[in-house]
Amino acid sequence: MNQITLPSKASQGGAVFLPAAVREAIDLLGIERPVVVKIVAARNLGGTHRVKPDGRGNYFHSITIRTSSSPEKASSSLWHELTHAAQCETFETPIHFHRAYAKASAMDGGYRNNRYEVEARGNESLSEDLRLTKVTSQERAYAALSKADLSGLSDAELVAACREAILTAEREG
Questions:
Q1: Can you say how many angstroms the Cα of residue 49 is from the centroid of all Cα atoms in its chain?
Q2: Which of 31, 65, 93, 108 is the most exposed place for a label (fewest CB within 10 A)?
Q3: With 0-12 CB in 10 A as exposed, 13-18 as middle and 19+ as buried, what is 166?
Q4: Which residues have C-beta within 8 Å of that of residue 119, sequence separation ≥ 6?
């Protein structure tokens, strides 16, 4: 069984990774190497997959997910990046995968049409059946407040509405 390291805190977008679900996804994709997932501040990406040496002659998959991603986006992004990890493991070495990936980008007409990206984008829909994240009570409270009509409330009433939304979200759990 390979090692999985997940962030211990929720992302700014409210995503909390579910270890059992991530383990199931890794098993489903046939990933054998260790996987380390981190949440990072980034502007123009949902996530990245890198291969890093472990200092003992092997490598692990280093996956980053954007901190502002919603729970839904974080889950689909993790499916996407785990697909790249699985793709990488079908090659003799990571460098062979990176060469094949670069060649596919050139032959397939760029990044969007790259066969490895097409497969990874396709696997994002697996998140509909196996969510890799859950929504925090903070995210539920924010969603409830964003739907509420708060116009015309005094500051004290607004504070009370926020407290009630947070308490309700925490009770729902």
A1: 11
A2: 93
A3: middle
A4: 83, 87
